Write the structure tokens for this entry.
Amino acid sequence: MTIDEGYTKFVCDWTECALPDLAEIAELCRWRKPLFDAGLIGVYEDIGIGFGNISVRIGRSPDFLISGTQTGHLHELAAEHFALVTQADFDRNRVSCSGPIQASSESMTHAALYRIDESIGAVVHVHSEQLWRRLKGSIPTTSEDVAYGTPEMAREFARIYRVSDFSSSGIAVMGGHAEGIVSIGSSLAVAATRILELQNSNRPKG
Ligand SMILES: [Zn+2]
């Protein structure tokens, strides 16, 4: 099994600039911390590649703030670690973003989820070998043939949102992305708590 995190399969049109003073930045920092502490966002030390990313929709717009590329190793994030994604063109595999850092290489997946339903206010993507192995196929799972960060993944998420309980449970396994799990919610608190509760229930009792 290959870890494919860190590849940027899409073209990122990046405008380097400071971010506006958005309240969502503090919220992202607050909810990323317990996910990092739980090992759900981090870095594969042996290959030096970060994994996991977190985003939040700005108001009711299609725009979202997302953690920047290769920030997985950082214990805490600050404003300089986020990018604002303002456009995503799935067919051209192209994302436009602005901010002090380029958006996560998985921005296309986040963009795809926000586009499915206006009520999705936040997206959390984590890696967990145990959760992935345990839940793959038993909860909504994207096809193994679909790699992350591709236009096909965008269509695949829309499909499982329609045909499974992903829209209500808010958690899906990325079948074609080793260790990859996604949660969605009306807010970051909802999306992050869903993953953290799963992680807690995965611990051995006693
Ligand atoms: Zn991933």
